[in-house]
């Protein structure tokens, strides 16, 4: 029994479903019987199919806390070839916010509640108590790993694990789908509420910041555009100060990142619907 297998058994005894990783920090591939899920299901899932493969197949879904599986064959032979240990955060009752670089860590320190932190090769894992859907690229350099995902075990880290905050859950929320009207009007003004703009500079700064946020996006472009539209409408969309020129600037920035005119229109409509503007 090697050191990885011993550590895996210790983690499993503490309720953490684990699995071996091969070179490249990826799970071992399915065996010939289970290739392309030909076996009909994945082990260790609530909706498991008929597959009862004894091998560490099916990626994250093979993670287990069963010591007889982890210590017996054919897993022992796999541990001998493994390079690292992974665990299923959702199965352990936690969510991992994977911060991939220094900028992402800076954002987390300013935006997220303190919790346990684990150093990674390029950044940090922030671990919260509670589970949610996993999501990749929720913002530049940030992934969420919880249900139906795996995270590399890199040690216990430092700090106390705290409850999963709503701000993390919100990162995985996509724009609500709405039916697109045959001829959707996007012209301003939208409302006649109280005006918060003491000077034109306030509105100009808000639109300029939204343009910059869209232009600087490196991933999750759809979500970034929607959130930028949402922020502008939330602050400036109820009093009638937004003009067609402002909207055109936002759409131009979005289309510069590859969004189609229809995607822009739909995102704008979704934001208005969400805010009731």
Helix content: 25-40%
The rough form would be described as elongated
Distance between the termini: 63 Å
Estimate what percentage of residues fall within beta strands.
5-15%
The largest pleated sheet is described as: 6 strands, mixed
Number of DSSP helical runs: 9
Number-wise, the strands total 10
- Uncertain stretches: 178-185
Order of helices and strands: HEEHHEEHEEEEEEHHHHH
Provide mean pLDDT, rounded: 85
Structural class comes to alpha+beta
Give the C-alpha Rg. 23 Å
What does this structure look like?
This protein has 277 residues and is α+β, with helices and mostly antiparallel strands. The protein is 36% helix and 14% strand. The chain contains 9 helices and 10 strands. It has helices at residues 3-13, 67-71, 75-81, 102-111, 166-171, 200-215, 221-236, 244-256, 261-275, and strands at 18-22, 26-27, 84-87, 94-99, 116-119, 124-129, 135-139, 142-145, 151-152, 162-163. Strands 4, 5, 6, 7, 8 and 10 form a 6-stranded mixed beta sheet that branches.
Quick tags:
about 15% strand; about 35% helix; 4-stranded antiparallel sheet; about 280 residues; alpha+beta; elongated; 6-stranded mixed sheet
Summed up, what is this model?
The chain is α+β, with helices and mostly antiparallel strands. Helix content is 36%, strand content 14%.
SSE layout and pairings?
Elements (H helix, E strand, L loop, with lengths): L2 H11 L4 E5 L3 E2 L39 H5 L3 H7 L2 E4 L6 E6 L2 H10 L4 E4 L4 E6 L5 E5 L2 E4 L5 E2 L9 E2 L2 H6 L28 H16 L5 H16 L7 H13 L4 H15 L2
Parallel strand pairs: 6-10
Antiparallel strand pairs: 1-2, 1-3, 3-9, 4-6, 4-8, 5-6, 7-8
């Amino acid at each position: 029994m090697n050191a990885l297998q011993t550590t895996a058994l210790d983690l499993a005894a503490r309720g953490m479903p684990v699995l071996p990783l091969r070179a490249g920090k990826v799970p071992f591939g399915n065996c010939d019987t289970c290739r392309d899920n030909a076996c009909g299901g994945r082990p260790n899932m609530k909706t498991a199919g008929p597959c009862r493969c004894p091998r560490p197949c099916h990626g994250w879904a093979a993670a287990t806390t069963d010591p007889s599986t982890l210590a017996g064959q054919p897993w022992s032979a796999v541990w001998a070839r493994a390079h690292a240990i992974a665990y299923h955060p959702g199965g352990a009752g936690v969510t991992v916010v994977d911060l991939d670089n220094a900028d992402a860590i800076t954002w987390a320190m300013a935006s997220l509640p303190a919790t346990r932190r684990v150093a990674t090769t390029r950044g940090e894992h922030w671990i919260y108590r509670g589970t949610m859907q996993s999501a990749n690229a929720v913002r530049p350099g940030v992934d969420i790993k919880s249900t139906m995902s795996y995270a590399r075990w890199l040690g216990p880290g430092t700090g106390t694990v705290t409850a999963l905050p709503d701000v993390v859950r919100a990162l995985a929320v996509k724009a609500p789908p709405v039916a697109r009207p045959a001829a959707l009007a996007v012209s301003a003004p939208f409302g006649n509420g109280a005006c918060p703009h003491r000077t034109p500079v306030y509105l100009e700064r808000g639109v300029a910041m939204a343009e910059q946020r869209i232009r600087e996006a490196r991933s999750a472009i759809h979500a970034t555009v929607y959130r930028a539209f949402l922020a502008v409408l939330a602050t400036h969309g109820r009093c009638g100060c937004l003009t067609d020129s402002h909207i055109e600037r936002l759409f131009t920035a979005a289309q510069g990142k590859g969004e189609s005119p229809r995607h822009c229109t739909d995102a704008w409509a979704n934001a208005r619907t969400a805010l009731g503007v």
